[in-house]
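Backbones bend. We report:
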Amino acid sequence: MTVSPSLASAAKSSRVLVIGATGFIGKFVAEASLDSGLPTYVLLRPGPSRPSKSDTIKSLKDKGAIILHGVISDKPLMEKLLREHEIEIVISAVGGATILDQITLVDAISAVGTIKRFLPSEFGHDVDRTDPVEPGLTMYLEKRKVRRWIEKCGVPYTYICCNSIASWPYHDNKHPSEVVPPLDQFQIYGDGTVKAYFVDGPDIGKFTMMTVDDIRSLNKNVHFRPPSNLYDINGLASLWEKKIGRTLPRVTITENDLLTAAAENRIPESIVASFTHDIFIKGCQTNFPIEGPNDIDVATLYPEESFRTLDECFNDFLVKLGGKLHTDKIATMNTAAAVEVEPRAITATCA
Protein backbone atom coordinates (compact mmCIF):
# COMPACT_ATOMS: atom_id res chain seq x y z
CA MET A 1 0.00 0.00 0.00
CA THR A 2 1.31 3.48 -0.83
CA VAL A 3 0.35 6.92 0.36
CA SER A 4 -1.75 8.73 -2.22
CA PRO A 5 -0.18 11.77 -3.92
CA SER A 6 -2.92 13.98 -2.55
CA LEU A 7 -2.21 12.87 1.01
CA ALA A 8 1.53 13.27 0.58
CA SER A 9 1.03 16.74 -0.89
CA ALA A 10 -1.21 17.80 1.95
CA ALA A 11 1.28 16.49 4.50
CA LYS A 12 4.03 18.75 3.17
CA SER A 13 2.34 21.73 4.77
CA SER A 14 1.32 19.99 8.01
CA ARG A 15 2.33 21.99 11.03
CA VAL A 16 4.18 19.98 13.65
CA LEU A 17 4.39 20.69 17.37
CA VAL A 18 7.23 18.91 19.21
CA ILE A 19 7.01 18.78 22.99
CA GLY A 20 10.20 17.91 24.88
CA ALA A 21 12.45 18.99 22.02
CA THR A 22 15.35 19.85 24.33
CA GLY A 23 15.56 16.26 25.58
CA PHE A 24 17.67 13.50 24.08
CA ILE A 25 15.02 11.97 21.83
CA GLY A 26 13.01 15.13 21.31
CA LYS A 27 15.98 16.93 19.80
CA PHE A 28 16.39 14.28 17.11
CA VAL A 29 12.68 14.38 16.32
CA ALA A 30 12.58 18.17 16.09
CA GLU A 31 15.66 18.23 13.86
CA ALA A 32 14.15 15.58 11.59
CA SER A 33 10.91 17.55 11.37
CA LEU A 34 12.83 20.66 10.35
CA ASP A 35 14.92 18.68 7.87
CA SER A 36 11.72 17.37 6.28
CA GLY A 37 10.67 20.94 5.55
CA LEU A 38 7.57 20.90 7.73
CA PRO A 39 6.66 24.03 9.71
CA THR A 40 7.95 22.99 13.13
CA TYR A 41 6.90 24.46 16.46
CA VAL A 42 8.65 23.67 19.73
CA LEU A 43 6.90 23.97 23.09
CA LEU A 44 9.12 25.18 25.94
CA ARG A 45 8.32 25.55 29.60
CA PRO A 46 8.39 29.17 30.77
CA GLY A 47 11.47 30.30 32.68
CA PRO A 48 15.24 30.03 32.28
CA SER A 49 16.84 26.97 30.70
CA ARG A 50 20.05 25.13 31.56
CA PRO A 51 23.02 26.02 29.32
CA SER A 52 22.84 22.69 27.45
CA LYS A 53 19.14 23.18 26.74
CA SER A 54 19.72 26.78 25.73
CA ASP A 55 22.22 25.60 23.14
CA THR A 56 19.68 23.12 21.78
CA ILE A 57 17.00 25.81 21.60
CA LYS A 58 19.31 28.14 19.71
CA SER A 59 20.26 25.37 17.29
CA LEU A 60 16.61 24.57 16.59
CA LYS A 61 15.72 28.24 16.16
CA ASP A 62 18.61 28.69 13.75
CA LYS A 63 17.15 25.84 11.69
CA GLY A 64 13.74 27.50 11.58
CA ALA A 65 11.87 26.20 14.62
CA ILE A 66 9.14 28.46 15.99
CA ILE A 67 9.23 28.65 19.79
CA LEU A 68 6.03 28.53 21.84
CA HIS A 69 5.83 28.70 25.63
CA GLY A 70 3.54 26.72 27.88
CA VAL A 71 3.00 23.45 29.72
CA ILE A 72 0.94 20.51 28.55
CA SER A 73 -0.92 20.35 31.87
CA ASP A 74 -2.62 23.68 31.00
CA LYS A 75 -5.55 22.53 28.85
CA PRO A 76 -6.98 25.96 27.94
CA LEU A 77 -3.54 27.19 26.88
CA MET A 78 -2.81 24.08 24.83
CA GLU A 79 -6.17 24.38 23.06
CA LYS A 80 -5.39 28.01 22.30
CA LEU A 81 -1.90 27.22 20.92
CA LEU A 82 -3.11 24.30 18.82
CA ARG A 83 -5.90 26.38 17.28
CA GLU A 84 -3.97 29.61 16.77
CA HIS A 85 -1.04 27.92 15.05
CA GLU A 86 -3.20 25.40 13.18
CA ILE A 87 -1.16 22.48 14.45
CA GLU A 88 -1.95 19.18 12.72
CA ILE A 89 0.71 16.83 14.12
CA VAL A 90 1.66 16.69 17.80
CA ILE A 91 4.73 14.74 18.95
CA SER A 92 5.52 14.35 22.63
CA ALA A 93 8.93 13.29 23.94
CA VAL A 94 8.39 14.19 27.58
CA GLY A 95 9.71 11.98 30.32
CA GLY A 96 9.76 11.38 34.03
CA ALA A 97 7.12 13.11 36.10
CA THR A 98 5.32 14.63 33.10
CA ILE A 99 4.18 11.39 31.45
CA LEU A 100 0.66 11.59 32.91
CA ASP A 101 0.39 15.29 31.96
CA GLN A 102 -0.13 13.96 28.45
CA ILE A 103 -3.66 13.01 29.46
CA THR A 104 -4.51 16.71 29.71
CA LEU A 105 -2.77 17.24 26.37
CA VAL A 106 -4.94 14.51 24.82
CA ASP A 107 -8.03 16.28 26.18
CA ALA A 108 -6.88 19.49 24.49
CA ILE A 109 -6.18 17.66 21.22
CA SER A 110 -9.61 16.03 21.36
CA ALA A 111 -11.31 19.36 22.04
CA VAL A 112 -9.59 21.05 19.10
CA GLY A 113 -10.58 18.21 16.80
CA THR A 114 -8.26 19.05 13.90
CA ILE A 115 -5.13 17.11 14.90
CA LYS A 116 -4.32 14.50 12.25
CA ARG A 117 -1.84 12.51 14.34
CA PHE A 118 -0.58 12.37 17.92
CA LEU A 119 2.64 10.58 18.83
CA PRO A 120 2.83 10.27 22.62
CA SER A 121 6.06 9.84 24.55
CA GLU A 122 6.95 6.23 23.78
CA PHE A 123 10.33 5.92 22.02
CA GLY A 124 11.38 2.72 23.74
CA HIS A 125 9.70 -0.66 24.20
CA ASP A 126 6.15 -1.64 23.41
CA VAL A 127 4.80 -0.88 26.88
CA ASP A 128 1.83 -3.19 26.43
CA ARG A 129 4.11 -6.18 25.86
CA THR A 130 6.71 -5.83 28.57
CA ASP A 131 6.61 -5.83 32.36
CA PRO A 132 9.82 -4.56 33.98
CA VAL A 133 10.21 -4.73 37.71
CA GLU A 134 9.67 -1.58 39.72
CA PRO A 135 10.40 1.27 39.52
CA GLY A 136 10.43 0.95 35.72
CA LEU A 137 7.00 -0.70 35.79
CA THR A 138 5.40 2.46 37.18
CA MET A 139 6.58 4.43 34.16
CA TYR A 140 5.16 1.80 31.81
CA LEU A 141 1.85 1.70 33.67
CA GLU A 142 1.64 5.47 33.21
CA LYS A 143 2.38 5.15 29.49
CA ARG A 144 -0.29 2.45 29.20
CA LYS A 145 -2.75 4.78 30.89
CA VAL A 146 -1.94 7.48 28.34
CA ARG A 147 -2.41 4.97 25.50
CA ARG A 148 -5.81 3.90 26.77
CA TRP A 149 -6.94 7.52 27.13
CA ILE A 150 -5.83 8.32 23.57
CA GLU A 151 -7.80 5.36 22.28
CA LYS A 152 -10.85 6.18 24.40
CA CYS A 153 -10.88 9.76 23.11
CA GLY A 154 -10.56 8.61 19.50
CA VAL A 155 -7.44 10.68 18.86
CA PRO A 156 -5.49 9.40 15.82
CA TYR A 157 -2.13 8.10 16.99
CA THR A 158 1.10 6.32 16.21
CA TYR A 159 3.15 4.60 18.93
CA ILE A 160 6.88 4.58 18.19
CA CYS A 161 8.60 1.49 19.65
CA CYS A 162 12.23 2.14 18.71
CA ASN A 163 13.88 -0.10 21.35
CA SER A 164 17.43 0.84 22.51
CA ILE A 165 19.76 3.73 21.75
CA ALA A 166 22.83 2.79 19.69
CA SER A 167 25.45 2.95 22.44
CA TRP A 168 26.85 0.88 25.27
CA PRO A 169 23.93 -0.01 27.60
CA TYR A 170 25.14 1.11 31.00
CA HIS A 171 22.75 0.11 33.75
CA ASP A 172 23.62 3.02 36.03
CA ASN A 173 22.98 6.75 35.80
CA LYS A 174 24.95 7.64 32.68
CA HIS A 175 23.29 8.92 29.54
CA PRO A 176 24.26 6.85 26.49
CA SER A 177 24.80 9.96 24.39
CA GLU A 178 27.36 11.33 26.83
CA VAL A 179 29.55 8.37 27.79
CA VAL A 180 31.67 6.17 25.56
CA PRO A 181 31.72 2.37 25.88
CA PRO A 182 34.02 1.01 28.60
CA LEU A 183 37.80 1.27 28.40
CA ASP A 184 38.60 -0.64 31.59
CA GLN A 185 36.24 -3.61 31.75
CA PHE A 186 32.90 -4.82 30.40
CA GLN A 187 29.92 -5.47 32.62
CA ILE A 188 28.11 -8.42 31.08
CA TYR A 189 24.46 -8.89 32.03
CA GLY A 190 23.69 -12.51 32.85
CA ASP A 191 25.36 -14.81 30.32
CA GLY A 192 25.50 -12.01 27.76
CA THR A 193 23.51 -13.87 25.09
CA VAL A 194 20.14 -12.08 25.19
CA LYS A 195 19.81 -9.82 22.16
CA ALA A 196 18.44 -6.31 21.72
CA TYR A 197 17.93 -3.83 18.88
CA PHE A 198 20.02 -0.66 18.80
CA VAL A 199 18.97 2.43 16.83
CA ASP A 200 20.92 5.64 16.24
CA GLY A 201 19.27 8.83 17.49
CA PRO A 202 19.04 10.57 14.09
CA ASP A 203 17.43 7.41 12.68
CA ILE A 204 14.81 7.55 15.42
CA GLY A 205 14.01 11.08 14.35
CA LYS A 206 14.08 10.29 10.62
CA PHE A 207 11.79 7.26 10.72
CA THR A 208 9.47 8.89 13.25
CA MET A 209 8.85 11.79 10.91
CA MET A 210 8.27 9.44 7.99
CA THR A 211 5.38 7.82 9.87
CA VAL A 212 3.48 10.96 10.87
CA ASP A 213 1.75 11.40 7.51
CA ASP A 214 1.67 7.76 6.45
CA ILE A 215 -1.81 6.26 6.47
CA ARG A 216 -0.26 2.81 7.02
CA SER A 217 1.03 3.84 10.46
CA LEU A 218 -2.27 5.32 11.61
CA ASN A 219 -3.35 3.80 14.95
CA LYS A 220 -0.43 1.37 14.86
CA ASN A 221 2.52 0.32 16.99
CA VAL A 222 5.53 0.98 14.75
CA HIS A 223 8.50 -1.21 15.72
CA PHE A 224 12.15 -0.48 14.90
CA ARG A 225 13.96 -3.81 14.48
CA PRO A 226 16.96 -3.36 12.16
CA PRO A 227 18.53 -6.85 11.69
CA SER A 228 21.97 -5.27 11.26
CA ASN A 229 21.75 -3.82 14.76
CA LEU A 230 20.61 -6.92 16.65
CA TYR A 231 23.32 -7.61 19.24
CA ASP A 232 23.80 -9.33 22.55
CA ILE A 233 26.17 -7.90 25.17
CA ASN A 234 28.94 -10.32 24.24
CA GLY A 235 28.74 -9.24 20.60
CA LEU A 236 28.63 -5.60 21.62
CA ALA A 237 31.79 -6.06 23.68
CA SER A 238 33.58 -7.79 20.82
CA LEU A 239 32.65 -4.98 18.44
CA TRP A 240 34.11 -2.37 20.77
CA GLU A 241 37.27 -4.40 21.32
CA LYS A 242 37.86 -4.40 17.57
CA LYS A 243 37.49 -0.63 17.56
CA ILE A 244 39.98 0.03 20.35
CA GLY A 245 42.37 -2.78 19.44
CA ARG A 246 42.41 -4.34 22.88
CA THR A 247 40.69 -7.15 24.79
CA LEU A 248 39.05 -6.01 28.02
CA PRO A 249 38.23 -8.13 31.07
CA ARG A 250 34.58 -9.07 31.58
CA VAL A 251 32.67 -8.88 34.86
CA THR A 252 29.30 -10.59 35.20
CA ILE A 253 26.37 -8.54 36.48
CA THR A 254 23.87 -11.17 37.57
CA GLU A 255 20.12 -11.00 37.47
CA ASN A 256 20.12 -10.57 41.23
CA ASP A 257 22.57 -7.68 40.94
CA LEU A 258 20.20 -5.85 38.61
CA LEU A 259 17.16 -6.65 40.75
CA THR A 260 18.99 -5.36 43.82
CA ALA A 261 19.90 -2.12 42.03
CA ALA A 262 16.28 -1.72 40.94
CA ALA A 263 14.97 -2.40 44.45
CA GLU A 264 17.11 0.41 45.88
CA ASN A 265 14.59 2.78 44.28
CA ARG A 266 17.13 5.49 43.47
CA ILE A 267 15.74 7.57 40.64
CA PRO A 268 16.68 7.40 37.84
CA GLU A 269 19.38 4.77 38.44
CA SER A 270 16.93 2.12 39.60
CA ILE A 271 14.63 2.73 36.63
CA VAL A 272 17.56 2.14 34.29
CA ALA A 273 18.50 -1.03 36.19
CA SER A 274 14.94 -2.34 35.89
CA PHE A 275 14.92 -1.71 32.15
CA THR A 276 18.36 -3.31 31.76
CA HIS A 277 17.01 -6.41 33.53
CA ASP A 278 13.97 -6.47 31.25
CA ILE A 279 16.09 -6.15 28.09
CA PHE A 280 19.13 -8.32 28.76
CA ILE A 281 17.72 -10.92 31.16
CA LYS A 282 14.06 -11.28 30.13
CA GLY A 283 14.56 -10.43 26.44
CA CYS A 284 11.66 -8.00 26.23
CA GLN A 285 12.65 -6.67 22.79
CA THR A 286 12.80 -10.01 21.04
CA ASN A 287 10.40 -12.33 22.84
CA PHE A 288 7.36 -11.53 20.70
CA PRO A 289 6.66 -11.45 16.95
CA ILE A 290 5.55 -8.39 15.00
CA GLU A 291 2.13 -9.49 13.89
CA GLY A 292 -1.49 -8.59 14.15
CA PRO A 293 -3.51 -5.67 12.84
CA ASN A 294 -2.03 -3.10 15.24
CA ASP A 295 1.67 -3.79 14.64
CA ILE A 296 4.05 -3.02 11.82
CA ASP A 297 7.82 -3.02 11.35
CA VAL A 298 9.15 0.32 10.14
CA ALA A 299 11.40 -1.53 7.67
CA THR A 300 8.28 -2.94 6.03
CA LEU A 301 6.98 0.57 5.53
CA TYR A 302 10.22 1.94 4.10
CA PRO A 303 12.33 -0.92 2.70
CA GLU A 304 14.39 1.51 0.63
CA GLU A 305 15.61 3.35 3.77
CA SER A 306 18.57 1.99 5.71
CA PHE A 307 19.53 2.23 9.37
CA ARG A 308 22.93 3.46 10.41
CA THR A 309 24.81 0.42 11.69
CA LEU A 310 26.00 0.02 15.25
CA ASP A 311 29.49 -0.42 13.83
CA GLU A 312 29.26 3.10 12.39
CA CYS A 313 27.85 4.47 15.64
CA PHE A 314 30.78 3.04 17.59
CA ASN A 315 33.10 4.92 15.25
CA ASP A 316 31.54 8.09 16.64
CA PHE A 317 32.73 7.13 20.11
CA LEU A 318 36.26 6.80 18.76
CA VAL A 319 35.96 10.35 17.49
CA LYS A 320 34.88 11.46 20.97
CA LEU A 321 38.04 9.90 22.33
CA GLY A 322 40.08 11.87 19.80
CA GLY A 323 43.82 11.74 20.23
CA LYS A 324 43.54 10.44 23.77
CA LEU A 325 43.23 6.84 22.66
CA HIS A 326 46.64 5.28 21.95
CA THR A 327 47.17 1.54 21.74
CA ASP A 328 50.48 1.69 23.60
CA LYS A 329 48.93 3.59 26.54
CA ILE A 330 45.41 2.24 26.73
CA ALA A 331 46.23 -0.24 29.53
CA THR A 332 46.69 2.69 31.89
CA MET A 333 43.60 4.55 30.80
CA ASN A 334 40.13 4.47 32.28
CA THR A 335 36.87 6.00 31.20
CA ALA A 336 37.22 9.11 33.33
CA ALA A 337 40.70 9.86 32.07
CA ALA A 338 39.98 8.97 28.48
CA VAL A 339 36.96 11.19 27.95
CA GLU A 340 36.22 14.46 29.63
CA VAL A 341 32.47 14.20 29.25
CA GLU A 342 30.12 15.26 31.99
CA PRO A 343 27.65 12.47 32.86
CA ARG A 344 24.01 13.49 32.55
CA ALA A 345 21.06 12.05 34.38
CA ILE A 346 18.67 10.28 32.04
CA THR A 347 14.92 10.50 32.08
CA ALA A 348 14.37 6.98 30.76
CA THR A 349 12.39 8.18 27.77
CA CYS A 350 14.06 5.64 25.58
CA ALA A 351 15.14 2.26 26.89
